[in-house]
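Reviewer 2 asked us to include a model.

Predict the structure of this chain.
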Amino acid sequence: MSRLERVRAFIAIDIEEPSIVQKLVWLRDLFVQTGAPMKPVEDQNLHLTLRFLGEIPAGLIEDIYMNVLSRLQFKRFRMRLAGVGAFPSPTRPRVIWVGVREGSDVLQRLYREIESGLRRLGFRPEREEFVPHVTLARIKGSRNIDKVVKLLNEYADFEIGEVIVESVRLKQSILTPRGPIYRTLREVRAVE
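Predicted model (structure tokens):
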């Protein structure tokens, strides 16, 4: 990979606990079964994005690792996934997600540290407020949207379970016709 080559990148926490992935997939598939036009997130790609970076020069990967990721100090923490919601709102869903009930404070702190580190590297500040979530699907039209809204109401308080967070990863997203392939470029682990 040349330093000038561009890489679509993001900083995230992967959801890898099999029982949690299974529940998220089950929930995602309930929404898919509504028949609403949507692009579900692939099982192996379920994650919580701390910061989307967009298309960046490959030469920046090491800078981001050295100046941002490697400076993150965090202990292993518990993240409890619960509640289903949608952006921009449950009545006008475009993105269906699962929320974070516990561990949100640590995620907010990590986000702020990442954000200020990226700012020092010349990245523009995020436009949107950071809301910790795991995306299940993106809606591509309005057919059967009423069924989606009904499910969102039904599962608004649904408990998924707990994930122990031990690492934060800088990921590459390779876009393919069959969906994105995510590759871990760098990783920083929790301090004991």
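The mean pLDDT is 95. The chain has four helices and nine strands. We have added this to the supplementary material.
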